[in-house]
Amino acid sequence: MIGRLRGTLVEKNSPEILIECAGVGYEVTMPMTSIYALPELDQQAIIYTHFVVREDAQLLYGFANKVERKLFRLLIKVNGVGPKLALAILSNMSADQFVSCVRHDDITAIVKIPGVGKKTAERLLIEMRDRLKDWQAQQIHLVSDDGVMPEQFSADLSLDSTFISDNKGDAINALLSLGYKQVQADKAVKSVYNRGMSSENIIRDALKSML
User: Fold this and answer.
1) pLDDT by residue (tens digit) across 112-131?
2) Residue 7: enclosing H or E segment and its boundaries?
3) 101 secondary structure, DSSP code
4) Nearest CA-CA partner of 35 in 87, 97, 108
5) How far is residue 159's CA from residue 206's CA, in Å, rounded to a whole number?
6) Is 59 exposed, middle or buried (0-12, 13-18, 19+ CB in 10 A)?
7) At residue 62, what are phi and psi to the nearest 5 degrees?
8) How much is the pTM?
9) Domain with CATH 1.10.8.10 in the chain
């Protein structure tokens, strides 16, 4: 099991990144909330991972902190929720925002996430309610290796401001991979795009515009 990677951030092609560790490049799929927290390219990064082995693929999912990984692991235990949908949920809201939705039975916010229908949202609220009862206590035990609480990592949404010529296209592709339809992705990106924005900024603002 691969539980953590520490290395140089080589590529960011949301929702996938490439991180080089001891000469080996790992392709990792991450929720947008975690990608926002990554440093700039060629900088050192630490990613907490969840490794999935299927008959046709070996997949590595990454998270900026242990809190997001913990919630991801709880989500994929819900009947009908796989890694792709769990990533879509964590791309549209932070771990704490999702926990708040569950505690307040906020089905309206959850059904806005692509791929989450009313039945799935109801199932999430019911099954996650018991699993999140001691959420605060769980977070206390998920302190990072350098002693910083995960919430502090979540709050750091430092973005790579480097302009890439096809950032609009990258943002649209990222939204499509999260389950949004082409028309939705095109409209959302067009509504927030300004010249010079990084793809991560475009994706973040586009996601906010659809909530």
Assistant:
1) 888 899 999 999 999 998 88
2) strand 4-13
3) H
4) 87
5) 15
6) middle
7) -125, 155
8) 0.70
9) 167-209
Q: What is the H or E stretch that residue 18 is in?
A: strand 16-21
Strand 16-21 with 4-13, pairing: antiparallel
Give the model's pLDDT for residue 145. Answer: 47
Tokens encoding 169: 């296209």
Residue type, 49: T
Give the closest residue to 199 by CA, choosing from 176, 173, 181.
Answer: 173
Q: Pick from 78, 87, 145: which is nearest to 115 by CA?
A: 87
Superfamily of domain 66-143+148-154: 5' to 3' exonuclease, C-terminal subdomain (1.10.150.20)
CATH 1.10.150.20 residue ranges for the chain: 66-143+148-154
The span from the CA of 1 to the CA of 163, in Å, is 36
Question: Which residue in the block uniquely carries the two structure tokens 């010079």?
Answer: 196
pLDDT at res. 158:
34
Cβ burial, residue 10 (10 Å; 0-12/13-18/19+): middle
For residue 102, give the amino acid letter.
V
Q: Quick one: fold of 167-209?
A: Helicase, Ruva Protein; domain 3 (1.10.8)
